[in-house]
Design a protein that fits this description.
The chain has 116 residues and is an alpha/beta fold. It has a single domain, classed as 2-Layer Sandwich (Macrophage Migration Inhibitory Factor), CATH 3.30.429.10. It contains two helices and eight strands; from the N terminus they run E-H-E-E-E-E-H-E-E-E. Helix 1 packs antiparallel against helix 2. The radius of gyration is 14 Å and the shape is globular. The mean pLDDT is 94.
Length: 116
């Protein structure tokens, strides 16, 4: 049950672009994390106020990945590579302006139930 939150300064112009990026992230992260695509939630937001070193970024992104259970270090490294590469190729964001943050969670709410 991964939740992937992407906040980026790059605007996706159409719903088709947004959907295509979300689908590509879902499909690839499913394989990387070993989770079904039907359990992966992707949240993509465009933000204006992303700063690094005190300066506003024209091109940058923060990705947070929350996984129920524990993802291996290898999966996290592979996820990091995939996300940095897709953000570079699809949105033109330099890897030095991308943060990927991981959260392994032992508690989760899913389908109306609390799981621990």
């Amino acid at each position: 049950m991964p939740y992937i939150s992407l906040r980026t300064t790059k605007k996706l112009v159409t719903n088709d672009e947004l959907s295509a990026l979300a689908k590509e992230i879902t499909d690839n992260m499913s394989g990387i994390l070993g989770k079904g695509t039907d359990t992966i939630m992707v949240d993509i937001q465009t933000v204006d106020g992303l700063f690094m070193g005190g300066s506003q970024l024209d091109s940058g992104a923060v990705v947070e990945i929350m996984v129920f259970g524990k993802a291996s270090d290898n999966a996290k490294a592979e996820a990091n590579d995939f996300l940095c590469n897709i953000l570079k190729s699809k949105l033109g964001i330099d890897k030095s302006k991308i943060y990927v943050i991981y959260f392994d969670k032992s508690e989760w709410g899913y389908k109306g139930s609390y799981i621990s």
